[in-house]
Amino acid sequence: MAKAQLTSDLVKRLVAPEKGYRITYDSELTGFGVRIMASGAISFILNYRTTSGLERRYTIGDSDSWSLSAARKRAEELKRRIRSEHYDPLAELEKRRTDVKMNELCDMFIREHLPKKAPATQRDYKQLIDTYIRPKLKHEPVAELQFRQVNDLFSDITNQGKQTTANRAMSVLSKMFSEARKRGWASHNPTEGVEKNEEVKRERFLDADELDRLLVALATLEDQEAANIFRLILLTGARKSEVLAAKWSAFDLKTGTWTKLSHHTKQRKIHNIPLSAPARQLLSEIREAAGNDRGEYVFPAHFESTKEVTKHPKPYRVNVKNQWARVLKAAKLEDLHIHDLRHSFASFLVSEGMSLPLIGRLLGHTQAQTTHRYAHLALDPLRAATERVGAIVTPKAGSGTVIQLRKEIP
What we know:
Mean pLDDT: 83
CATH superfamily of the largest domain: Intergrase catalytic core
Strand order of the largest sheet: 1-2-3-4-5
Distance between the termini: 88 Å
CATH topology of the largest domain: hpI Integrase, Chain A
Structural class: alpha+beta
Order of helices and strands: EHEEEEHHHHHHHHHEEEHHHHHH
């Protein structure tokens, strides 16, 4: 067993043995080391002695889940407890592995992991946990949960016709087990090997006739605040959550810009977009109508939701589901989601010949492949361009002449 000052670079350069494992112990922190298996898997470990003098080896975690500095800090904490409290981490781990149930993992994940996520992500993850994961698996020991049980859950959700939901549930469950492994509650991830359902990106865009019907329906909607929310999404391509949480301070109607703050955007980055004249006009009318009652938010909450009880009610409007249903009924539109207004905004830009990178910047995409979903729509302006060339090259009916593209050199 070698000894060396452990560094991140040293860990990266470890060479796997032909068989078994090899441990390199830290020259500064006694008992702390890094183990590499013949398979190439790397884990941080701590050797210690119990009060009875028994030498034991505790695995802190693998290098994918733990950085060297975090593992060292954990080893120091364990050594302190072993000395001062006669703590036996391996015995505690063995006990925890039989005691910790999935219900506790669900609670821990919601309490400690979800607050790091965006509000919409927190809501979606919690719904998946409480609707599918917890009811099916809550009594199962975390350490003993098997692939078969997880795959059965996946199949149950899929057989309900919820293929995408089944995929999302597996993704959340996988993240939960990553957290469980960090805490030593499990040594495996039972979601590995689940063959997820194929997903086809939703492509629903408004055509000219549908747009006309939608605008008429918005004009006749009794709740004109909700209508303005839908109009602003359509005019800017913003996400519904960005529009609902928009503050007046983010808009400069003189220069025609909207500065979306990082905590309101999906990518957690400040995003500046220009506003069209109709968008500026709409916002001006909303502000003028609010008058002296204008608050911090463009679409403030008028009452607390009776459907969703929360400890921290939002100061802005959060629910326009019923209003959207009325719009669809009045416009006689089917299978159209609010988010499809954002897709339609992009499709209008493509039809006007705008480049995909430019569209991506307007939509706030950070990855080119996200915008590439609209690439096939770019064929329309290209086709129109080729038709214009064809009209030049093809002889007019009855003229009997062809326009030459290149003059002959005498």
